[in-house]
Amino acid sequence: MLSKKTKYGLKALTFIAKSEGEAPVQISEISKSENIPQKFLESIMLTLRKSGFLGSKKGKHGGYYLIKEPSQIKMADVMRVLEGPIAMVPCVSLNFYEKCDDCPDEHECSVHKLMIQVRDNTLKVLRNNTLEDLSGI
Amino acid sequence: MLSKKTKYGLKALTFIAKSEGEAPVQISEISKSENIPQKFLESIMLTLRKSGFLGSKKGKHGGYYLIKEPSQIKMADVMRVLEGPIAMVPCVSLNFYEKCDDCPDEHECSVHKLMIQVRDNTLKVLRNNTLEDLSGI
DNA sequence: GTAATTCCTATTAAATCGATAGGATTAATG
DNA sequence: CATTAATCCTATCGATTTAATAGGAATTAC
């Protein structure tokens, strides 16, 4: 299941993309418009800024803005930052690989093979979709 | 992330599929061979039996056996029983649909559209793969 | 200098997950 | 019939994760 964090983050990015060209977008505005708890959203925006998707301006009339073009922001990258690994098991993760405790040899593991297929198909979608697609520009 | 429950369940089914034709397969045997905590596996096997994938025989020389041909057991169905919804958000789930709290209209939701694509591609894989594929028969 | 905003760290409450406990029931075997 | 070996069943526990909140520090516009 997608965490609320990720869902809220994607909605917030979409909201900002749609408001682009104007002044920075404020958390309070996104929070109200998208029904996201404000304090929770605050921490998510922080994460998105620290990972290079958003810039911010502090103080009055401050807020957040996109650093890259929406068409350059791949969903796969956003998901990795907010949700973590895209793969369903660590042993098939490209960016968060980990060996499984229970598998002496992962190439013998039936689950491994299946999850590689799932990963590849999920990745295809998430690499193919950018923020531009989500915001319907 | 795939839960251990699901992973163990899939491995156990694969193990039984490979041992097919002989006597019922015992939990203790699967547990040792696949490095799965026995008591935990016990509860998983119970779930798989109650949901119609496995039959069981009690008492001495008892154990579990497949009820259907491996080629007739779709991964999508096993996953739904062990893991729950395949979709990443309830609002795009075919079998576990639920409305999202934060979305007044889900057809307007950017995340919704993306997650339908992810779901469809995941389903394609999970419907296409059967226990026969996993057990490499 | 005041108001409005982001920034930062810590904390909490609830849910979920992985695993274990302890026995009840059933069946094979001698 | 007694023993052994297996599944069946319910409950519980501890650790982790998740969603959210708290409380103030720092910064900026005006």
TrEMBL record, chains A, B:
Q: What PROSITE patterns does this protein's entry cite?
A: HTH_RRF2_2
Spell out the SUPFAM superfamilies in the cross-references: Winged helix' DNA-binding domain
Sorted alphabetically, the keyword list is: DNA-binding
Q: What NCBIfam families does the record tag this protein with?
A: rrf2_super
Q: Identify the PANTHER family for this entry.
A: HTH-TYPE TRANSCRIPTIONAL REGULATOR ISCR (PTHR33221:SF5), WINGED HELIX-TURN-HELIX TRANSCRIPTIONAL REGULATOR, RRF2 FAMILY (PTHR33221)
Descriptive protein name: Rrf2 family transcriptional regulator
Protein species of origin: Flavivirga algicola
Q: What is the lineage of its organism?
A: Bacteria, Pseudomonadati, Bacteroidota, Flavobacteriia, Flavobacteriales
